[in-house]
Automatic annotation (TrEMBL):
Residues 48-132 form the GHMP kinase N-terminal domain. The keyword Coiled coil does not apply. Signal peptide: none annotated. Coiled coil: none annotated. It holds the Pfam family GHMP_kinases_N. GO terms for molecular function: ATP binding; kinase activity. This is GHMP kinase N-terminal domain-containing protein. It comes from marine metagenome. The keyword ATP-binding applies. Keywords: ATP-binding, Nucleotide-binding. Gene3D superfamilies: 3.30.230.120.
Length: 311
């Protein structure tokens, strides 16, 4: 996987308590959960990801936990994996325990796939933990993160051509990831061929970034976007199709639905001259354009003077 982090964050504050009470507050959902530190939090549909992370770590001490995110879940920006990493980082700091970035990312992955039975990949958790541009490689139960040293002028050029568009739509109920995983496990030759093709393209794009070939990278990104839309196990939703049609009519150079299920955000590369016109066309149809910059920072945890633990 070729991944990067952008300046959209999940924020958390852990406030130690003197009693054994736990209170979890989600500012995004307007929900709160109350429990005791020695209880197993029920995974009943409300704030399950946060509760599953607390259950796995079993802090056995009281605290208030406040969480909020820049991006909603299920929209392709990896917010769910990021929140899992966030909660792990906060509670480990509260318990005064150390874990390597690899252990934190892998724990976040296992919380989703084992504790919550959600079909996910590992890329979001590792990207959120490490930060920056990385090549993430998977083999025989091992995940390795290789940081990419990309020249600043290349990053600046990519940023100046990048448009991040929110279609206000989340992941569909019929998640195509589950369908693709089932076919992969069955040894479906078409799925295996598609995955091999995407893997080869990933290494090509990595080399183009390192060599500073922005034009070739955007061409490859265009190909990746076409492969993504073609390979979706379900047809793009009417909303997503509407925006794709707009981009095709404007002959936009490259675009790609983000996230495994192709929901929520579109990443668009255009030349700087056409940028404003493309943005206006998308906004006229109800899309939100999100300013974006690349960042090299992954998870950070610190303690404030008021005994608050922040991430």
């Amino acid at each position: 996987t070729l991944s990067t982090t952008i300046d959209k964050y999940a924020y958390g504050t852990l406030i130690p308590r003197k009693d054994q009470k736990i209170k979890i507050i989600s500012k995004d959902y307007g929900l709160s959960v109350n429990s005791n530190a020695d209880d197993i939090l029920p995974l009943d549909g409300e704030l399950n990801l946060i509760k599953a992370a607390v259950n796995r770590l079993s802090p056995n001490k009281g605290f208030d936990l406040i969480i909020e995110c820049d991006a909603p879940p299920g929209t392709g920006l990896g917010s769910s994996g990021t929140v899992a990493v966030l909660v792990i980082g906060l509670i480990l700091e509260y318990m005064e325990k150390h874990a390597s970035p690899y252990k934190i990312a892998e724990m976040a992955y296992k919380i989703e796939i084992e504790d919550l039975k959600i079909t996910v990949g590992r890329q979001d958790q590792y990207a959120a933990t490490f930060g920056g541009f990385n090549l993430i490689e998977y083999s025989a139960g091992t995940t390795l993160v290789a940081p990419l040293r990309i020249m600043n002028q290349i990053l600046n050029e990519l940023e100046s051509n990048l448009i991040l568009c929110f279609t206000k739509e989340g992941r569909s109920i019929e998640d195509p990831v589950n369908i693709e995983v089932e076919k992969y496990l069955e040894g479906d030759k078409l799925i295996l061929s598609k995955l091999d093709e995407m893997k080869k393209l990933t290494y090509i794009m990595k080399n183009q970034l390192l060599l500073g070939n922005v034009e070739k990278f955007i061409d490859s990104f265009c190909l990746a976007g076409k492969m993504k839309i073609k390979n979706l196990s379900t047809q793009p939703s009417p909303i997503l199709s509407k925006y794709i049609d707009i981009l095709k009519k404007r002959k936009v150079r490259a675009f790609k639905p983000l996230g495994a299920a192709g929901g929520g955000y579109l990443a668009i590369f255009s030349d700087y001259i056409s940028r404003k016109g493309i943005i206006k066309s998308m906004q006229d149809q109800g899309a939100l354009i999100t300013p974006v910059r690349f960042t090299s920072i992954g998870m950070q945890v610190w303690r404030s003077k008021k005994r608050l633990i922040k991430c």
